[in-house]
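Discussion board: Methods & Data

I've been asked by a reviewer to show the raw model output for two of the constructs in my manuscript, not just the figures. I'm not sure how much to include, so I'm pasting the format here to get opinions. Each protein appears as its amino acid sequence followed by a line of C-alpha cells. Is this the kind of thing reviewers expect to see in a supplement, or should I convert it first? Here is construct A:
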Amino acid sequence: MPFLKPDRYFSRLSKVDIDRDLLALGYRNVFLDVDNTILTRDTHEVPRDVGLWLGQARDAGISFCLVSNNWHEGVYHLAQRLSLPIVAKAVKPLPPAFMIALSKLGAKRAETVVIGDQLVTDVLGAHFMGMKAYLLAPLVEQDLPHTLMLRNFERLVMGDRKPEGAVTPSASTAHPAGKTNGSHVQTNIESANKEG
C-alpha cells in the first residue's frame, strides 16, 4: 500500500523543521489539514507551539492553504483569523480540492507538501496528486466516530513506525507569545481561541 505510506511522520507540526524539512527540499507551499492537525478536537484550540510554528514558517516564506473536509463555520472563522486561504468541504482524498488549493496559491505540485493527521484523507490525497505527504500524530485522542474506526486501520498500516520528534509536557507553553518571529500570528490565534 505505497499510496498510504507517508513520506515523513512527525509527532506534531512544530517538530517539522522549517529549513531542513521544507525549504531545503524545495517546499514553498503547505496544504494543511485543520482538525487534530492544528486545531484540537476536544477544546477546539490551536496549541501555542503550533501557532508559533505557523508564524515562523510564514516569516520564512512558506505559503499555506487550509484543506479541510470540515464544513462548519468554525473552520472558516479560523482561516479568517489566521489570514489563510481555505478549501473546506474538501472531500479528501479526492483530487478537486487539492487542485483548487494549488490554484489559490499559484503553486506547483513539486513545491508543495500536504500535512495532516490521517492516512486515508491527507496522505492518500497527496499521493493521488503526485505530491509528498507528511503525517502527524493527532493532537488529541478524541475524534469523530468514523475517524476512530480508521485509526485502527492506520495502526495496521504504520506498524511500529514511530513519529519523529518527542512530545514533551511543556511543548504547548515553551515559547511565550511575542518572544519569537511570527508572534503576530500567535496573537491572532489566541484571539480566535478566546472567541471560538
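Construct B, same format:
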Amino acid sequence: MKDKIVCVVGLGYVGLPLAKAFSKHLRVIGFEIDEKKVGELNKNFFPSQKPLLKNTFSFLQKENLC
C-alpha cells in the first residue's frame, strides 16, 4: 500500500496527527499555507501540550512523509 499517496491540507491540531497516522501505511504530502506554522514545523516545534502531538516530529523525517 506504500504506492498510494495521500495529501493532508492543513497541518494544525487535526491535520498533523492525521498525517502522522496516515504515514504509517501511506506516503503523505502535508500542505500548509501558514508560513509561521511551516517554520515551526521545520524547526520541530509545535506549540501543543497534547500528548498525541508531543512525539509527532519523529515521523516528519520518515520517507513516507513528503
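Answer (T.O., handling editor elsewhere):
This is acceptable in a supplement if you add a one-line summary per construct. For B, something like: The first strand starts at residue 5 and ends at 9.
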